[in-house]
Amino acid sequence: MPYQKTKVFVSFDFDNDKTLKECIIGQSKLPDSPFKVSGYSVKEPAPEGDWLTTARSAIAGCDVFIVLLGRYTKNAPGVLKEARIANELNKRKFQIIGYPTGTRDWAVPNGGAVYCWTWDSLKKLLA
């Protein structure tokens, strides 16, 4: 039976941290990656209700919800809504500090435990 990779939804501050999303997608494509990105934050001109429905569906289809932390993430309205949905759906979740100078002060309330972003820690969390 083929190995099933953990499906993750990546929540991030769309206006400030798109680079973090690209980094985690890149890591998901490495040969020894135990995960694949199945969904991530979007910024669409769609009505609020449509965006929330799309986000809820994507989060429901993932195994793990990850918040990529940048300086302003804890105040990003979309991230806060996505974290609330992940909690409503009882998803396993955690947060990773996206920058070397980052701190746990950047954490999103109720977004899960906070870890430093290293390839080894990410692989262990998602194995």
Question: How is this structure best described in words?
Answer:
Strands 2-1-3-4-5 form a five-stranded parallel sheet, with helices on both faces. 35% of the residues lie in helices and 22% in strands. The protein has a single domain (6-126), classed as Rossmann fold (3-Layer(aba) Sandwich), CATH 3.40.50.450. The mean pLDDT is 91. It is built from four helices and five strands. The chain has helices at 18-28, 48-60, 77-88, 119-126, and strands at residues 6-11, 35-40, 64-69, 92-97, 113-116. Helix 2 (48-60) packs across helix 3. The chain is globular, with a radius of gyration of 14 Å. It has 127 residues and is an alpha/beta fold.
What is the CATH T-level topology?
A: Rossmann fold
Domain count: 1
Helical proportion, percent range: 25-40%
Distance between the termini: 17 Å
Number of helices: 4
Query: What is the number of strand segments?
Result: 5
Average pLDDT level: 91
Secondary-structure element pattern, one letter each: EHEHEHEEH
Low-confidence stretches: none
SS content category: alpha/beta
Instruction: Tell me the Rg in angstroms.
Output: 14 Å
Cα shape: globular
Query: Can you identify the CATH class?
Result: Alpha Beta
CATH architecture: 3-Layer(aba) Sandwich
* Proportion of beta-strand residues: 15-25%
Largest sheet: 5 strands, parallel
Widest sheet, order of strands: 2-1-3-4-5
